[in-house]
Amino acid sequence: MADIRDFIAKRAADFFEVGDLGNLGIGLPTLVANYLPPEKNVLLHSENGFIGIGPTPEEGKEDKDIVNAGGMPVTYVPGAMAFDSAFSFALARGGHVDVSVLGALEVDERGDLANWFVPGKLVPGMGGAMDLVVGAKKVIIAMEHTQRDGSPKILKKCKLPLTAVGVVNFIVTELGVMEVAKEGIVLRELAPGVTVEDIQAKTEATLIIPENVGVMNG
Amino acid sequence: MSKVKTLDEITAKFHDGQVMMIGGFMSAGTPETFIDAIIEKGITNLTVIANDTGFVDTGIGKLIVAKRISKLIATHVGTNKETGRQMNAGEIEYDLVPQGTLAERVRAAGAGLGGFLTPTGVGTIVEEGKQKITVDGKEYLLELPIRAEIALLHAWKADTSGNLVYRVASRNFNPLMALAADFVVVSAEEIVEVGELDPDIIATPGALVDMLVKGR
């Protein structure tokens, strides 16, 4: 695999179905947009106030009124629609966003998510993350499997301040695809060349291994 | 009656210690004209309610850098390192609020509501000190309305009576804040005569606007 971030993003994109309304978090999740096939007609929600976020404009074509939730210049696609922040979060909280893809600092076997701050560091604020994950029909965590120092991010119980409780549905990493079920985290797919032992060794939560584990196609 | 005023007439309404709502999201739709005027006039000790603090050189970020804000209620400050520094150093009082909750608190105030129930923040530090209410077996937090003495807004187009039209991502909190402050001032990029704006695209009625000026 050329780049594990792209490999993860490509697999996360498979969770979208035809006509879905999606929301992509900053960082790796933004790459998911590159792998959404046009025939799926997925529109992306930008929580700062529109549906139909498009790619970054060419240099010199930036428009101060067309930016993403990070304030960076973007474009909008045909069929886009703008609205205010209360409507934007009615969409988010109200269950109208089909798939929300976010990064995480920690996820645990109850589906709890921590992705907004590390005590002792500068507090960025939670922005729209808490609202997006409580409302989206499917919450997909797309992230590298471990912290930079190799310590696990998929835990028995999150230690960092939570973003929300019991909201994560699927976790996609460079090692595999996991589903957060009632009984715990179920391994659904393994990346080519990765064994059950490999992925478990890098995961604090005990993975539930079903009879059939698929092969993850990035 | 025209609500178009000079910038001086509008900024005469600003004062030290005021509770201000400021529209915009990462500086898109933030009234830079008023931000610059606050800095120039030396107005300080402000309580600011806004989505974010922009960047160090644009939007509300400029008020942070110039140390004019003593209390901040916002959802995200990660794009302005100086805000984080002032928070950590205890130089600024702050309250970080989930974005959907802040938008709805502003909306609730403007809509005459006593609050609302949201699932956002349940089980997190956001629930600290808040009343939890269970409806149909699901837990919610009671969130309260938030108002300001003055709202500083930005529109793309206005007519002289204060009807406002916004453009794409510059709409954000502006129309909500227009309902939730005692006094509402607007900078608009273009001001046209009454009757020239299509009623179907006006997002904020002039009845909510007290004063406006052409500005960035």
Would you mind describing this structure in some detail?
The complex is a heterodimer of chains A (218) and B (216). Chain A has 218 residues and is α/β, with parallel strands linked by helices. Chain A is built from four helices and 13 strands. The model of chain A has no long low-confidence stretch (mean pLDDT 95). Chain B is built from six helices and eleven strands. Chain B is α/β, with parallel strands linked by helices and 216 residues long. Chain B has helices spanning 7-11, 32-41, 61-65, 81-88, 99-110, 174-177; strands spanning 19-22, 46-49, 69-74, 93-96, 116-118, 132-135, 138-143, 148-159, 164-165, 181-192, 211-214. The interface between A and B is large, with 43 and 52 residues.
What is the percentage of strand-forming residues of chain B? Answer: 25-35%
Distance between the termini of chain A: 8 Å
Number of strands of chain B: 11
Largest beta-sheet details of chain A: 10 strands, mixed
Mean pLDDT of chain B: 97
- Structural category of chain A: alpha/beta
Number of helices of chain A: 4
Principal-axis shape of chain A equals globular
Proportion of residues in helical segments of chain B: 10-25%
Q: What is the residue-averaged pLDDT of chain A?
A: 95
Radius of gyration of chain A: 17 Å
Order of helices and strands of chain A: HEEEEHEEEHEEEEEHE
Number of helices of chain B: 6
* Gap from first CA to last CA of chain B: 23 Å
Weakly predicted, low-confidence segments of chain A:
none
What's the order of the H and E elements of chain B? HEHEHEHEHEEEEEHEE
Q: Share of helix among residues of chain A?
A: 10-25%
| Structural class by helix and strand composition of chain B | alpha/beta
Specify the biggest β-sheet of chain B.
8 strands, mixed
| Morphology call of chain B | globular
Rg calc of chain B: 17 Å
